[in-house]
Design a protein that fits this description.
The chain is mainly α. It has 10 helices and no strands.
Length: 240
């Protein structure tokens, strides 16, 4: 269904190119490694944009077609329906990473030089999975409200900033930095940055990323149960 939607196709295909272009001109004049990290960050931003926009859109479509109530009432737990949607949409983000790197290499001459390919290859799926798990946590709130699509858009920009996708967490206000540490994508991006530049401990960051991703799943399951109970009581699963 997403492949038949012009809007969703635009988000998947064009977003990484737009983000990569903005990142390049923001960091133009920096070293090649900084530009490469900026390209990686733009790819991760594209993954999160797809997860929020398309995940919220998928729930809105189910609500509009009148199947959301049936899915919730089915014997299969609703988390088993919602989680694959979130992870599958974020999984498409591998395209965002790939096209972002190829784009800046071909058009802007940024060399793709990774310090540790092993850590990088492990960090990519861990980061994508963490974004899918965080999307699942946020999606539990989208089930509660009919304006799911608009709420999904609200989540997009704050996560970019708090998780330090385009800018390091260290440049955020001191009071905000501890908040970023509880988000799994923060550690995924840190692992990607460390594997590329040869700084920090990428494997340790990957471990923290996966632990927090599991925590997001558990929190999402609890929140989903509470929100579904409230949505049933208020009869807000239907669009009208």
């Amino acid at each position: 269904m997403l492949s038949r939607s012009p809007f969703d196709l635009f988000v998947v295909v064009a977003s990484p190119l737009i983000f990569a272009t903005l990142a390049y001109f923001l960091f133009e004049g920096s070293s090649g490694s900084t530009l490469l990290v900026a390209a990686l960050a733009s790819g991760v931003m594209g993954i999160w944009s797809s997860t929020t926009a398309q995940g919220a859109g998928a729930l809105q479509t189910q609500r509009r077609l009148g199947v959301l109530e049936l899915l919730v009432a089915a014997p299969v737990p609703f988390w088993a329906v919602l989680l694959p949607i979130s992870v599958a949409i974020s999984g498409i983000g591998i395209y965002s990473l790939a096209v972002g790197l190829v784009y800046v290499h071909v058009f802007y001459g940024v060399a793709i030089a990774v310090h540790s390919w092993l850590a990088f290859v492990v960090a990519v799926p861990a980061t994508i999975a963490s974004i899918g798990c965080l999307g699942f946590l946020f999606a539990s709130a989208l089930v509660r409200y009919r304006s799911a699509f608009m709420i999904g858009n609200v989540f997009e920009w704050p996560v970019w900033m708090i998780c330090g996708l385009l800018i390091p967490v260290s440049v955020l206000p001191a009071w905000l930095q501890p908040v970023s540490w509880v988000f799994a994508p923060t550690w995924g991006m840190r692992a990607l940055r460390g594997a590329t530049l040869g700084t920090g401990s990428p494997l340790a960051d990957i471990g923290i990323c996966l632990v927090l991703a599991v925590a997001s799943l558990l929190a999402g399951g609890v929140c989903l149960r509470l929100f579904l109970r409230r949505a049933r009581a208020d009869a807000t699963l239907a669009l009208t």
